[in-house]
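Hello, quick one for you while I still have it in my head. Could you read through the record and tell me how the tokens relate to the sequence? No rush at all, and the record is pasted right below.
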Amino acid sequence: MSESEERTPEHPGCVLGIAFGLLLVAALVAVSLFAAGRVVEDPRSFLEETFAIGELPFELQFVEAVQLPGGDHLVRLAHPDHVTPEPEPESGDDPDPAPSDAKKVVSYKPPPRPEMTPDTPPTEVFLALYEDPEDAVRAFRSSGGGGSGGRGRGSVEMSHDWNQSVQMDGGDLEWGELRAGYLHERKFEGETAHDEVRVNLSGKDRYCVLFARWPTNHAGSRERVEELLGSFSIKSD
């Protein structure tokens, strides 16, 4: 099969899975599989063994790359303002209330739906290169959310008050002469939301998934990911 006839695996979905899902990718930065892996000295040169790389959009820059114990590799790109991960929010717990003998009726009020800032670029990108093609498939399909494990596409009205992932969009993206599986998820956490887009860049002799992440309450989009993918192409033999 020629490169022009390649097609990356399809079937986007919101299946609870393993490896590099929404929560795990966040954990990679905070806790760090990067610390557990063997450092790759030149992330760009390493990635250029697989892809031809042009000028990166959105002021993204190569930050680090590691080889994990199982042989998989992880490359991280970030905007200069987001090289250091977002800090965890401080606890907003109120001091212990004064004791009271009065019985109170507590009514449930869901948190307000986050107001998402539209048309912004991702500020953090991971490219995970796997030794096992099944790991790439699972990573692309996996959902890090709780609750239903991802409701039907775009069902925000039903689920914004739950700590869970919701599939916002999915399908295929045009990637040069190829098509790549695409999945856009939104992870709700109370009054905040985090968008992640996964793209399956796997093909002949490569098993790779791209993860693009947006800042808190900033909406991801297919168009921004397509712009990002324009910087990567399959190397000619």
Summary: Residues 51 and 234 are 5 Å apart (CA to CA).
